[in-house]
Amino acid sequence: MDSGFAPPDVREDEIPYMCSPASRHGRRELVVTIGASKDQAVPRPARHRSLPDWLVGGTQPVPLLPAFQLQAMTTRIYGFIMGLIDGRRSVADMARLLAEQRLMTREEAEPAVRTFLTKMYEESQRPPASEKVPDLSFVSCLVV
After folding, report:
1. pLDDT tens digits, the chain, 144 residues: what are they?
2. CA 136 to chain centre
3. Measured between alpha carbons, how far is 121 from 103 in angstroms, rounded to an integer?
4. Among 40, 48, 59, 114, which lies 20 to 30 A Cα-Cα from 31?
């Protein structure tokens, strides 16, 4: 790919540093210089797009992506389940209320509530981040 620059001129020079007859701290240092001249105009490369403009700029509307729709529905259901925790309701009671609200079918509700509460319970049993031992299990797949 042509950058529009001539091959660089690379130089190494040894120069004096703090060399004074009144000081013993003087020394000579090796300095590397690299210089290049622009010899032609080239078109600008395409802008790297790691994040969409609506997210970077913040002024464009946020698109209603299918993944966002699914996450919004899931978050509402999780919030609803968390709101049902009162120390009196069972998993079956919560599942019945989810079905009554038509958030999911009765057959889907109980396993979903149980799975969600299991994850929440397991998360609550983990030590705080400051006490966690780092999980390095992924390292073995990198080393192989």
Report:
1. 578 888 999 999 999 988 888 888 889 999 999 999 998 888 888 877 788 888 888 899 999 999 999 999 888 888 989 999 999 999 999 999 999 998 889 899 999 999 999 999 998 888 777 666 666 555 444 443
2. 18
3. 22
4. 40
State the Cα–Cα distance between residues 7 and 27, nearest whole angstrom.
32
Tokens 């090796």 belong to: 30
Instruction: Give the span between the Cα atoms of 100 and 89, in whole angstroms.
Output: 15
C-alpha angle with apex 40: 34 to 41, nearest 5 degrees? 110
Gyration radius from the chain CA atoms: 32
> Any idea which residue has 């797949």 for tokens?
141
Q: How far apart are the first and last CA of the chain?
A: 35
pTM strictly above 0.90: no
Task: Pull the structure tokens for residue 12.
Answer: 């190494």
Residues found in the chain:
144
Please list the residues that pair with 33 across neighbouring strands.
Answer: 11
